[in-house]
Design a protein that fits this description.
The protein has 21 helices and 23 strands. The chain has about 625 residues and is α+β, with helices and mostly antiparallel strands. The strands form 4 sheets. A 9-stranded mixed sheet has the order 1-6-5-4-7-3-2-8-9, covered by helices on one side. Helix 4 packs antiparallel against helix 5. The protein is elongated. Bound molecules: adenosine-5'-diphosphate (ADP) and magnesium ion (MG).
C-alpha cells in the first residue's frame, strides 16, 4: 500500500487559497480557462519533448483535453494526456505558489481585506491552478509524467494542507477533478456540471486552443489558431482570451498587434501590449514574453531571441514557417532569420507606440505609466532605434506639474535663441525642483526636463542631441544663459566681479582642495549661496550612488563649487578673508558652504558628524558674537 503524506502549503499559498475560497470574484467561470490553459501547455510540452527525445516512448497520436461531468457526484474532471508531473514537480509547482517570493504579492495579500481588493488582486496577479478553489471545495489531481511508471495523487480542500501519495498506475498526463460547491447565484456559482454551461465557457475562453477539447465524444472548440485568421474576423474578446492564455495574465491587452510577413521567409506574429505591468517587470529572473511556434507547433515559451530586453513587456507568439522543428536555444541565438524577425517586430512595436501617442492619448498615457521606464532602457541598448524611442518618450518638466511632455513639444516651446534641451536628473521631482541649479532657469523662465528614473542617468550620458538640439544638464559644465546684448552688458560687470572675488576664489580652492576641483563664480544661482557642478562627462551624484550600492569601487569625482556673488554669506566671507586668511573659523565656514551645497542637491555628506560639529560651533560663535 502506498503511503499518504500530509503536507502544509507555504504561508503565501495558504493566504492565497483563503482568498480564492472566500472571494466573491464575479468571474468564477475563468477557473476553466486556467485549467484548460495548463492542459494545453502540458500537451505542447509533450509534443515537443517527444520530438526531441525519441526514446521517451509517449503516445502522441491523440493529444487532447477531455472534460467529464458527473452530475450526481457533482464533479468536473479536466484531463490531458500531456507531459504530466513527477511527485517532486507536484510539490514544487502545485504545493508552492508559482509566482511566490515577491514582497509585493505578500504585502498586497495582507492588505486585501475586503472583497473589492481581493477581486483586484486576483485580476492583477493572475491566479492559475488555484482558481479551482473558487468553485470547488476539494480538488484531486492525478498525474503521471511521460516516461515514468509511477504516478502521484494530490488532494486538497484548500484548507492550508494537502496530501500526496504515490500510485502504481495512472494514465499518462494529468487529471484534475473538482468537487464542486453547490450552485449559488449570489456568489456567482453556476452549475458547472451542466454540459451547456461547460460548452459556453469553453467557446468563450478557450476556442482557439490548439488541441481538441472533448466533452463526452464531442469536440467543443474550433482549434483555429488566432494568428492565422484575418484581423477583421477575430473579435476583441477572442484576442483578449488568447492574450490571457499566452501571457498567463488576467488583464486586458492595451493593444493587439497582428503581423504577417510574406516572401522568402514567411512568418506570422500576434503580439500584445498589456494594460498592467506585471509585478516582476524589474526582477532579474523574470521571463521574456514571446513564444515561438514553427508551422503552428509550439517550440518554446519566452523566446529571448524574439524580443530585446527593453521590450520584455510584450507578450504573444511568433509562428515561423521555415525554421526547423528541431531548433535549440543555442542554434536560435545564431539564427539570421530570427534576428531579422526581431528587427521587424521591434520596429512594429515602436510604430504601434507612436500611433498610440499620436492618436490615442489616453492609451498612450497608460502605456507610458506602466512601461515607459522599461522602454527607455532601449535608449542605452538599441542604437538603431534611439531616435524613435526618444520620439515616443515622455518626460516630466518644469513646464507642468501634472502633464508629461514629449521632446517635440519641448522644442516647440523653446525660447528665441535657446539651442539646447535643458534637463536635470535626480531621485525625485522635489529634489530637482529644490536644487539650487534650477534657480537661474526658473528666474529666466527656461523649461527644464526633470528626469527621475534610474535609466535616465544612463542615456543622458550617452545621447548628445535630439533633432539638432544638444542635451544639456543644468548641473554640469558652465552655463551661459544670457543673450548677446545681456552678455556684453554683463561683461564689464563680470570683469569687475572677478577682480573683487579673485582672492576669495583662490583661497577657497586651496582650503577645499581635498573636496573640490575648483571654486568659481556662478551664473546659475539667484537665492542659494552655492552649488556643486560636474563636468560634462562626470558621473552624476546619483549614478555614483547607484554604482556604489551595486558594490563597484569608484574613484572620487571632484566637482566644481560655484558661488553666488550676490549672496551676503559669500560677500561676507570675501571681506573677512581679505583680512584674516588663516583663521580656522573661516575655513570652517568654507567647509559648511560646501556641505550645504551638497545637501541642497540631495547628495549625501561624506562626513555628516563633522558637518554637524562645524555647524554647532558656528552657531555657538554667533551668540558669542
Ligand atoms: P502558470 O500556468 O502561470 O505557470 P499555474 O498555477 O496555472 O501557473 O500552474 C502552475 C504550474 O503547474 C504550471 O506552470 C505547470 O508547470 C504545472 N501544471 C499545472 N497544470 C498542469 C498540467 N495539467 N500538466 C502538467 N503540469 C501542470
Ligand atoms: Mg496556468
Amino acid at each position: 500500500m502506498s503511503q499518504v503524506t500530509e503536507l502544509e502549503f507555504q504561508a503565501e499559498t495558504r493566504q492565497l487559497l483563503d482568498l480564492m475560497i472566500h472571494s466573491v470574484y464575479s468571474n468564477k467561470d475563468t477557473f476553466l480557462r486556467e485549467l484548460v490553459s495548463n492542459a494545453s501547455d502540458a500537451l505542447d510540452k509533450l509534443r515537443l519533448e517527444s520530438y526531441i527525445d525519441k526514446d521517451l516512448g509517449a503516445d502522441t497520436s491523440d493529444l487532447h483535453i477531455q472534460l467529464t461531468v458527473d452530475a450526481e457526484a457533482r464533479t468536473l474532471t479536466i484531463a490531458d494526456n500531456g507531459i504530466g508531473m513527477s511527485r517532486h514537480e507536484v510539490i514544487d509547482l502545485i504545493g508552492t505558489l508559482a509566482k511566490s517570493g515577491t514582497g509585493e504579492l505578500r504585502r498586497k495579500l495582507r492588505e486585501a481585506k475586503d472583497s473589492a481588493a481581493s477581486e483586484e488582486l486576483i485580476g492583477q496577479f493572475g491566479i492559475g491552478f488555484y482558481s479551482s478553489f473558487m468553485v470547488a471545495d476539494k480538488v484531486t489531481l492525478v498525474t503521471r509524467k511521460a516516461g515514468e511508471t509511477h504516478a502521484t495523487r494530490w488532494v486538497s480542500e484548500g484548507d492550508g494542507k494537502y496530501t500526496i501519495e504515490n500510485l502504481d498506475e495512472a494514465p499518462q498526463g494529468t487529471a484534475v477533478t473538482l468537487h464542486l460547491m453547490p450552485e449559488d447565484a449570489e456568489n456567482h456559482l453556476f452549475d458547472y456540471t451542466s454540459e451547456s454551461k461547460i460548452r459556453e465557457i469553453v467557446k468563450r475562453y478557450s476556442d482557439f486552443i490548439n488541441f481538441p477539447i472533448r466533452l463526452g465524444d464531442d469536440v467543443i472548440n474550433s482549434q483555429k489558431a488566432l494568428w492565422t485568421r484575418p484581423r477583421s474576423e477575430v473579435s476583441d474578446e477572442e484576442y483578449t482570451e488568447f492574450y490571457r492564455h499566452v501571457a498567463h495574465a488576467w488583464d486586458e491587452p492595451l493593444e493587439v498587434i497582428p503581423f504577417r510577413a510574406e516572401g522568402s521567409f514567411e512568418y506570422q506574429a500576434l503580439l500584445f501590449i498589456p494594460t498592467m505591468a506585471p509585478f516582476d517587470l524589474f526582477m532579474r529572473e523574470r521571463k521574456a514574453g514571446v513564444d515561438l511556434y514553427v508551422k503552428r507547433v509550439f517550440i518554446m515559451d519566452d523566446c529571448e531571441e524574439l524580443m530585446p530586453e527593453y521590450m520584455r513587456f510584450v507578450k504573444g507568439i511568433v509562428d515561423a514557417q521555415d525554421l526547423s522543428l528541431n531548433v535549440s536555444r543555442e542554434i536560435l541565438q545564431q539564427d539570421r532569420h530570427l534576428q531579422a524577425i526581431r528587427k521587424r517586430l521591434v520596429k512594429k512595436v515602436l510604430s504601434t507606440v507612436k500611433d498610440l501617442q499620436n492618436n490615442h492619448a489616453e492609451k498612450y498615457q497608460t502605456f507610458w505609466r506602466e512601461f515607459g521606464r522599461v522602454l527607455k532602457e532601449g535608449l542605452v541598448n538599441d542604437f538603431d532605434n534611439q531616435k524613435t524611442i526618444l520620439q515616443v518618450s515622455s518626460f516630466q518638466s518644469t513646464h507642468s506639474a501634472e502633464d508629461l511632455t514629449t521632446l517635440g513639444d519641448y522644442i516647440a516651446r523653446m525660447k528665441d535663441g535657446q539651442d539646447r534641451i535643458f534637463y536635470m536628473t535626480g531621485e525625485t521631482r522635489e529634489a530637482v525642483e529644490n536644487s539650487p541649479h534650477l534657480e537661474a532657469f526658473t528666474a529666466r523662465g527656461l523649461e527644464v526636463l526633470i528626469l527621475t528614473d534610474p535609466v535616465d542617468e544612463m542615456w543622458t550620458g550617452s545621447i548628445p542631441e535630439f533633432d539638432g538640439k544638444t542635451f544639456q544638464s543644468i548641473a554640469k559644465g558652465d552655463v551661459d544663459l544670457d543673450s548677446e546684448e545681456e552678455r556684453k552688458a554683463a561683461e564689464a560687470d563680470r570683469e569687475e566681479q572677478e577682480k573683487q572675488y579673485a582672492e576669495l576664489l583662490t583661497w577657497m580652492t586651496e582650503t577645499l582642495t581635498e573636496q573640490v576641483k575648483s571654486v568659481r563664480l556662478s551664473a546659475r544661482l539667484t537665492t542659494s549661496p552655492a552649488c556643486v557642478v560636474g563636468e560634462t562627462f562626470d558621473l552624476t551624484p546619483m549614478l555614483e550612488k547607484m554604482y556604489r550600492s551595486a558594490g563597484q569601487e569608484l574613484p572620487v569625482t571632484k566637482r566644481t563649487l560655484e558661488l553666488n556673488p550676490k549672496h551676503p554669506l559669500v560677500t561676507g566671507l570675501r571681506d573677512a578673508v581679505a583680512t584674516r586668511k588663516d583663521d580656522q573659523a573661516l575655513k570652517d565656514t568654507a567647509a559648511l558652504i560646501y556641505g550645504m551645497a551638497l545637501l541642497a542637491e540631495g547628495s549625501e555628506l561624506r562626513d555628516p558628524a563633522q558637518f554637524a560639529k562645524l555647524l554647532a560651533d558656528e552657531l555657538t560663535r554667533s551668540f558669542a558674537g
